[in-house]
Amino acid sequence: MEFRTFVFYFLAAILVIASLRVVTLRNPVHAALHLVLAFFSASGVWILLQAEFLAIALILVYVGAVMVLFLFVVMLLDIDLDRLREGFWSYLPLGSIVALLVVAEMGLVLVSRYWGALESDVPQAEAGYSNVQAVGRLLFTEYVYPFELASVVLLVGIVAAVALTLRGKRKSKSVDPSRQVFVKAGDRLRIVRMPAEKRD
Predict the structure, then answer these.
(1) Over the chain, what HEC string results?
(2) 25-57: per-residue pLDDT in tens?
(3) Where exactly are the structural domains of the chain?
(4) pTM score, whole prediction
């Protein structure tokens, strides 16, 4: 087996396992850690195909946004942060395993440049060729319908998250604006006349 094939199967296996763990775990902290691992594995596959822009965009956008996503989930689901802080050290073994796998993947991708594991059959572009422009042209011409479908799926996810937070008894106080408009000053203010008392 070539070293390139070994690196691909290594990254692909971790990607599949981490993706399955994201949707099967009940703990949001563990799911977020596996999501970071899945994004790193996918970016390693992109680097093997010499698509560095997609790999860096995947790491910067998605891995950088995972923590924001996790905080968003914590705020929406009203998770008890005190209980999460109490079990902080229980997450250390899983976090260490994920960190070691990410470091191993990065090391394999960096070493693969010298061992000839990168894809060499990819046609090389000219000097003035823009990878970003080519991705944008493909995204808004051939793949415009999947792109719009992904935006609709994200919109449905946002609406579903808001609907999940508003179910049940609302704790916030609200006032009907139509009742506020028809309020009269006489209903709100009452002048009371009290006799003055002299003190010694």
Answers:
(1) CCHHHHHHHHHHHHHHHHHHHHHHCCCHHHHHHHHHHHHHHHHHHHHHCCCHHHHHHHHHHHHHHHHHHHHHHHHHHCCCHHHHHHCCHHHHHHHHHHHHHHHHHHHHHHHHCCCCCCCCCCCCCCCCCCHHHHHHHHHCCCCHHHHHHHHHHHHHHHHHHHHHHHCCCCCCCCCCHHHHHCCCHHHHCCCCCCCCCCCC
(2) 877 778 888 888 898 899 988 888 877 888 888
(3) 1-124, 125-165
(4) 0.51
